[in-house]
Amino acid sequence: MTHTLAAYQHLTGTQFEHAIADLARRDPGVRSATVSGGANDRGLDVLVVLRDGRRIAVQCKRYGERNRVGAPAIYTANGTYSDFHRCDAAAIVTTSRFTRDAEVANASLPAPLRLIDGRGLARWAAGGRPPWG
User: Fold this and answer.
1) In the structure, how many helices (H) and strands (E) does the chain have?
2) H or E element: which one contains 115?
3) What is the per-residue pLDDT across 71-127, written as a single tens digit (0 to 9) for each?
4) Where are any strands of DSSP class E within 8-106?
5) What is the C-alpha radius of gyration for the chain, rounded to an integer number of angstroms?
6) Share of the chain residues as helix, strand and coil, in percent rounded to the nearest 5
7) How far, in Å, are 42, 59, 100, 110 from residue 17 at the CA level?
8) How wide is the angle at C-alpha 31 spanned by C-alphas 30 and 33, nearest 5°?
9) Which of 18, 28, 61, 125 has a CA 20 to 30 Å removed from the CA of 95?
């Protein structure tokens, strides 16, 4: 089901995680997308397994426009996706935007995370490329 950005913003955090998993499952390259968020999720809200076997950790941030995703989210996802969750890559999807500090932190990583802001989410929901595409 395709959602507008406004529809995603009106979901609860848990509903948003499920909506992102549903969106991931639309991609024919996805074998499975499982919601695993909750308290102490260590930066993993949705685990996406691609048909080629790669595992993608997705952190979901359903924020209002004025609440941007900061550098701590980058550090958390980067610090756990590989060693803790045994994933090959990570993405952070938000209904909002990323702070400049978050973008700088991400750019400094040897393997930057895929950052999907509200506009990118709207494009993905409208049939655009998924974060692992």
Assistant:
1) 5, 5
2) strand 114-116
3) 999 999 999 999 999 999 999 999 999 999 999 999 999 999 999 999 999 999 999
4) 30-35, 46-50, 55-61, 89-94
5) 13
6) 35, 20, 45
7) 15, 8, 24, 27
8) 75
9) 28
